[in-house]
Specification:
With 185 residues, the protein is α+β, with helices and mostly antiparallel strands. The chain is built from seven helices and eight strands; from the N terminus they run E-E-H-E-E-H-E-E-H-H-H-E-H-E-H. Strand 3 (58-64) and strand 4 form a beta hairpin.
Length: 185
């Protein structure tokens, strides 16, 4: 039994079949890659698994730790330990990096925030009081989002194009963070 099992998943949008009878197993402690050309349905698959609005009307089933999560809300799935990093990370006008990351993990202090920022390739003291908005580059927002994921210690993470908008120097840092997530299970 996998950590996550997708069973015969079929999803249509506006009469077009995006996912067609897809079955996959994702195992605990492994890194899996879903690859394909643009428009192949990779992001749609992740959005369906995460339970995003507009992705609930599908055929088949999705099991997390052996239990069907069909019909569960996105926030319920997140509380179970599932999360997703977006291809284009969100901007939050007025929200400081420290508060964004602390919202991901209860009881995390500023030293813990600095630690996860460092693991994601950012200098903690330079970013704690920065806003998660347009003053951060896309690559910086991706790293802040990754730091928040490291802080929450999820059971399952979907990374939608984690290398998009990232400079070559930072790419190895991100892959190291992914390896750290793998090692933690």
């Amino acid at each position: 039994m996998g950590l996550l099992e997708v069973r015969d998943l079929t999803l249509e949008f506006e009469g077009a079949r995006i996912l067609d009878g897809l079955s996959l197993d994702f195992w605990e402690g492994h890194i899996h890659a879903v690859v394909g050309p643009n428009g192949a349905g990779k992001s749609t698959l992740a959005s369906t698994i995460m339970g995003l609005s507009g992705y609930h009307d599908f055929e088949g089933d999705i099991l997390f730790e052996g239990e069907s999560i069909r019909g569960l809300t996105m926030d319920r799935r997140a509380r179970m330990g599932m999360t997703m990093a977006w291809q284009e990370p969100a901007r939050f006008v007025g929200l400081k990096v420290r508060d964004f990351i602390k919202a991901s993990a209860k009881g995390l202090d500023d030293d813990g925030v600095r630690k996860v920022l460092g693991e994601a390739g950012l200098e903690g003291d330079r970013y704690l009081d920065r806003a998660v908005d347009t003053t951060l580059s896309g690559g910086e927002r991706k790293k802040v989002e990754l730091a928040s994921i490291l802080a929450m210690k999820p059971r399952l993470v979907f990374l939608d194009e984690p290398d998009s908008g990232i400079d070559v120097e930072s790419l190895e840092r991100i892959f190291e963070a992914v390896r750290k997530l793998k090692e933690s299970g």
